[in-house]
Amino acid sequence: MSLSSGCPTDLLAQHFYEEPAQYQQLLTMAFGSTEPPEKQGVVSIIVKLATFFRGSPQLLLALNTILSSGYALTFAPLPTISIPHSIDRVIFTMPDESCIVDLDLETRPSNDLLNTQNSHRATLPFRTTSQMCSFVAADEYHEMNLIVEAEDAPLVMELLQFELDRTQAASLRRRYLKSLRHLNRLHGVLPPSMYLRNIVCESEFPVSGGGFSDVWVGRLGEQRVCIKVLRMFMQHENKEKLLKSLSNEVILWRQLRHPNILPFLGINIELFRPSFCITSPWMSNGDIISYASKSSMSFKEKLDYAVQIAQGLAYLHELDPPVVHGDIKGANILITDDSRQCCLADFRAIGDGYAVLQSDT
């Protein structure tokens, strides 16, 4: 089944506490069939549920808890508004495809759900990842031809990111990434999946910091994380410029996947509002300098770490387009909790127009 009838979240349970019949009706609407619905049927069910909750975005997000693994529902938060008051377009992700669907209280979903248009919104260049792949793969395609309104840009970027996560072809990945960065430069927004909402801060005070940010200890589910909070002591115009530049940097960091590169987990705009938080896994051993001062490393261990640093750099340099770290030093090399791996952090992305990422470890 594409939907799971497991226990609802506390949020959904509280909402329907005094109206169990309505909650039962909701579940019947979602799980009325014992047979796995076709793709069109899945989208139809989700549109009905999402339309029901379109005026309550927090409950709309809570619907993800009754979706099976591989299925997700999200919408596009704006940089200055974390949770909009009402939703009219959402992204629905399935294991093999992601699509943009319209919600309309006055018009019930039609049979042709993926092509439904709201009269007050501009036509999208594509609505599914299948359509997007054909659009981007065309010989005459150029990212400058990708025209999308600001309010729809995050949704289109989500489709691009979905394909970046599963596409291996270098030529297509380059086009997807350039399109993603083009929309980011135009509108200063990010794919909705990059926003983390279930993150909590555990430390009472920053555990470290520097000229550009403070570092706090947090938790994302069961994972301990590093929350880097950017300092915002600047004029409004400069702040907007910084946030736009940083959003372009995290788009690049999001694509990097290598055992010797510090993983990017996401951003948060609510926890330390109005500051911008960047989240990565917590490395309790710290950087390689502090680790070396507290432990006795053998020559073999030092050689292993040197090789890993070289492997991380080779990975960055072999990307298309290549990425140059730009600031290799001990403070920017972190040691994993099991002491077996070192990860390059705080790189400066240089090449093919990438801006500089510079923050404090």
UniProtKB/TrEMBL annotation:
One function term, GO molecular function aspect: protein serine/threonine kinase activity
Keyword set, alphabetical order: Kinase, Transferase
The keyword Lyase is annotated on this UniProt entry: no
Coiled coil ranges: none
InterPro entries linked: Kinase-like_dom_sf, Prot_kinase_dom, Ser-Thr/Tyr_kinase_cat_dom, Ser/Thr_kinase_AS, Ser/Thr_Kinases-Pseudokinases
Name of the protein in question: Kinase-like protein
PROSITE patterns: PROTEIN_KINASE_DOM, PROTEIN_KINASE_ST
Highest taxon of source: Eukaryota
Lineage: Eukaryota, Fungi, Dikarya, Basidiomycota, Agaricomycotina
Kinase among keywords: yes
Residue ranges annotated for the Protein kinase domain, each copy included: 201-361
